[in-house]
Specification:
Structural class: mainly alpha
Order of helices and strands: HHHHHHH
Largest sheet: none
Low-confidence stretches: 153-160
Shape: globular
Mean pLDDT: 83
Radius of gyration: 17 Å
């Protein structure tokens, strides 16, 4: 019996300067996104080209259009906005969730530690990544907010 083997490509590793450039290109092309803030494949091709020309790569393979589309930070922004919309919680770009006191920790933990059985895997991962922002802001929040001035756009598992 032969088993199919998966060949996995090396995963992209993003540094802050690459992420800044990704967001700058998306902001420059926001008028092309249309309703629901969905960028076209040509936009992500432009991002990949800009990254290649800027020579910012510090680790991992060069960024492809597919990789740039996957990196698009819409989901993290959406989770921050969802958390911020909960009653009685805090979010700002300097102190993140600004967790102080037992009650704030209880609300925060119930949000970021939601059971994987009640969430999609991607939502579970994104909420888990939010842990680091309990007392520090997400560095890309303002940039993503500028790209999405009317909220976080289309939602769903396969939305970019």
């Amino acid at each position: 019996l032969l088993m199919a083997t998966e060949t996995s490509e090396p995963k992209a590793q993003w540094n802050a300067r690459e992420t800044d450039l990704l967001l700058a290109v998306l902001l420059s092309k926001v008028s092309e996104a249309g309703n629901g803030n969905r960028f076209k494949p040509t936009t992500f091709n432009a991002v990949a080209t800009a990254l290649d020309q800027a020579d910012l790569l510090t680790a991992g393979p060069p960024k492809t259009a597919k990789c740039c589309k996957t990196k698009w930070l819409l989901q993290m922004y959406g989770h921050i906005e969802t958390y911020h919309g909960l009653s009685g919680v805090h979010w700002d770009n300097e102190r993140g969730a600004g967790i102080e006191g037992e009650a704030a920790w209880a609300v925060w933990n119930s949000y970021v530690q939601s059971s994987i059985s009640t969430l999609t895997y991607i939502t579970y991962q994104a909420r888990n990544l939010m842990r680091q922002y309990h007392n520090t802001g997400w560095p890309f929040y303002s940039q993503v907010q500028a790209i999405l001035p009317n909220g976080h756009g289309a939602q769903g598992h396969h939305t970019f």
